Amino acid sequence: MTAVPMPEFSAAGSPHTAERNPSANTRGFSTRQVAQEPDTRTLEQYLDSTPLAFLECRDKKHGSDPYDVERDGKFLRETVRCPRCGTLRSRMVDSRTGLAGPWKSYNHPAGYLRKGHGRMTKLEVGKMRLVYLLNR
């Protein structure tokens, strides 16, 4: 298996990226959205121009390699990095009990998402899966 180079992250961030905000009542995360221009590509254009590692992660979910742990009051913020596409995921862990909340923050590399199109339909996911499987 060949290594995939680390993708560049968009300076503007992702609307799915929760920014760290200790005063927020979501245990360290705020849900402020960053406005971005919608992606005008068709699904076929998106699939043709998107790296296979991104398509694999969208189909199979992200892997995780340890990346960072920060203390935030009585919580630890655990961040892991997907070895295929470079997406960073974070969640809060209670530093006394070790109980973990759900993954609250996703920071996807530029080009991973199709901005302005919402979630993919089952048929779109099927087309994406075929592009990945037939081109890997």
Looking at this protein, list some descriptive labels.
single chain, 136 residues, alpha+beta, 3 helices, elongated, disordered N terminus
Distance between the termini: 11 Å
Question: The biggest beta sheet, please?
Answer: 4 strands, antiparallel
**DSSP strand (E) fraction?**
15-25%
Per DSSP, the total helix count is 3
Kindly state the mean pLDDT as a whole number? 75
Instruction: Assign the structural class, choosing from mainly alpha, mainly beta, alpha/beta, alpha+beta, or little secondary structure.
Output: alpha+beta
Widest sheet, order of strands: 1-2-3-4
- Radius of gyration (Å): 16 Å
Q: What form results from the Cα inertia axes?
A: elongated
Low-confidence stretches: 1-33
Count of distinct strands: 4
Question: In words, what does this structure look like?
Answer:
With 136 residues, this protein is of the alpha+beta class. It has a domain at 43-135. It has three helices and four strands; from the N terminus they run H-H-E-E-E-E-H. The protein has helices at 43-49, 52-60, 122-135, and strands at 65-72, 75-81, 88-94, 105-107. Helix 2 crosses helix 3 (122-135). The chain is elongated, with a radius of gyration of 16 Å.
Summarize the structure.
By secondary structure, the protein is an alpha+beta fold. It is 22% helix and 18% strand.
Write the layout of secondary structure elements.
Blueprint: H1 43-49, H2 52-60, E1 65-72, E2 75-81, E3 88-94, E4 105-107, H3 122-135
Antiparallel strand pairs: 1-2, 2-3, 3-4
